[in-house]
């Protein structure tokens, strides 16, 4: 089956699905590898080959959690193993049907751990294990107070719309362009009021470059000045700080953005992988909405599955029908037309909503009807897959072999 896949536009989020650092994850597509890897919630893709973990950021159990998601092309994940001693010994990780995995261990201060991750598919093929090599070390150094003070000051200045006070915490080497960030934050202030963001510090880690990687969960409330409507959202996101004379200065941010919502394309340097929350953005008219990606896919027989995380289509899904796709979260059968969920996943229509107004709560509340039939155009659907939440809106369906469908999607 021949297919043509066209990514039509990554609307309002050009950083899209993260411009992922494929030095550790391979090149995607059908290769066996990792879609993402985190160490105690901090992305491992940007930290370099060495990563320092701070004891004061560990939970009450004192464990370090290695989490990620494996990809194996058209085959299923057969298993994931983790080594902490440079391949001397291996331990099995807990793996879900969708390829997400977790392994936890209790580290000793001052001891160096050499982490490698092996992914095996059901055909017995493995990833390039050496490409996942990372050195981990536990440190007793106190860094949490300084990071928390910097975050507190930034959130306070942003909520009180004090531009100069906010920018005082941004480094001159800000990766998303400091001047553009300043302009974007000012536009945020022109468009929003009543800003209230509360956060919980999840993890702090340091990379070999000397930069500090910070993960938080947040709850946010804003009022849109143009309409007077309020909006609340929550999720997790990440910051990177550069330490200058012992003072943390903001180096980069990922989607979901906390600051600079009006220029996500130039402010964000990627998207939190394997989770996060809905990424709010402000358009040129001062309207607040969630980010989404629009895609057009053409397929000879109109039966294909689509993976919204990797933005790839499979023209020959393993099965068709209810619960029958293993290569993506959804399967289209355009002759019907019908939309099916994947194995163990759930899908249902969300009436009265579009891609920018649907919320994570709307998707969480759906009850699985396995598939949606007929008149899909203009409708929005919620998809629950492996603990992740997605929204899909069908824009158009045309043709009769080859078929073409345009749809929008977003991940919460």
In words, what does this structure look like?
This protein has helices at residues 22-25, 144-159, 163-167, 178-191, 264-267, 360-364, and strands spanning 3-9, 32-39, 42-43, 50-54, 64-72, 77-83, 91-92, 94-95, 100-105, 112-121, 134-139, 192-207, 211-224, 230-244, 247-253, 280-282, 288-290, 293-299, 303-307, 312-314, 330-333, 338-341, 346-349, 371-373, 380-385, 388-399, 403-411. It is mainly beta and 412 residues long. The chain folds into three domains: 25-43 and 63-137, Immunoglobulin-like, CATH 2.60.40; 144-277, Nuclear Transport Factor 2, Chain: A; 293-411, no CATH class. The strands form five sheets. The protein has a nine-stranded mixed sheet with strand order 7-6-10-11-4-12-13-14-15. The chain has a six-stranded antiparallel sheet with strand order 1-18-27-26-25-23. A five-stranded antiparallel sheet has the order 3-2-5-9-8, with no helix packed on it. Strand 26 and strand 27 (403-411) form a beta hairpin. Residues 1-29 have low confidence and may be disordered.
